[in-house]
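Handout, section 4.2: multi-component inputs.
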Amino acid sequence: MDIDNRLYDRTPGVEDHESTASVESYTAGLALAILLTIVSFLVSQTNLLWPPGVVPGLIVLALAQIGVHLVFFLHVSIGSDIIRTMFWYIGRLSRHRRRDRNHGRPQLHDAYVCEDVALTPLPPLAHSSSIGAELKRHDDSGDHDHARSLFPAAERA
Amino acid sequence: MAAHLSSRATERSAPASKRTVVAYGFWIFILSDITMFSGLFAAFAVLSHRTASGPTGLEVINLYHVFIETMFLLVSSYACGLGALSAERQQRERYLVFAVLTFVLGAAFLFVEISDFSDMARMGAAPTRSAFLSAFFLLVGMHGTRVTIGLLWLAYMMAQVVFKGLQPHVLGRLLCFSLFWHALDMIWVGVLTLVYLIGAR
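Output:
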């Protein structure tokens, strides 16, 4: 139970128990940040870059630097929960929309989709065998009675 | 299976841990801070050529100092990250060493920035001289204010670690401080690029 709660109770940038932060990641971040800073100064002070391209180049370098800070210092990465959750919800929504177009489901279904998307937890990476598989089956079958029975708490509310 | 899942669903509707809620709220604060800075960036971008025939960016900016400032801030962020790692591992002395390093580098950044500001004011490039300089001092000064607040906060956190130790609630506050300090570094990347590198060309 403890492990499950930890999997769901996470904030971007917070590594509770499976921390990706390490001395190596901070050092790599520092090295990349210093490199990007030096390149930015070089680009702005010399004619290394085609002159009209200097300002766009500096902006690209700044965005890269912000990315380095996000990934190596703040640990917000493509593997982080918030990004994964976002993609997962987008995927779910588009699957439901597709199904709606094909079958012309009634409004009841639409209401259920909203509830469904808001309440369904993200299948955890490590534990996808149990709840993930169950949700996937629900997705594929489109059987709403079955899905509803997974969340009696939602039904009561 | 259904019973197992439903019990999990009920558990999940319980409030999240305080640490999670606080860190999430702090992220929202950081995003709101970045939103505020975006307004200042926009103001600077619009006003950067309105020099009222006063000094231009090229004349008042010392890029050598700016490079030193950037390095101070980057290494300070690095030390802050290593400090957070040691705090997580309950290494109090190590944390304090990194916190002092973070503080000294942050203070060095602030020292160079303030001495540059006073040099500019002596050269007649005060905030009242032109719209460009008003926007410049507002944007860069706002970042400097954040660094000052960060330094006070860091001193307070060091005192907490000395007197209370690395207890869970102190760790939560340290986490917020790390987020704040790294976010300041990200804002500095924007200041460096827009104000200094593009502005002093």
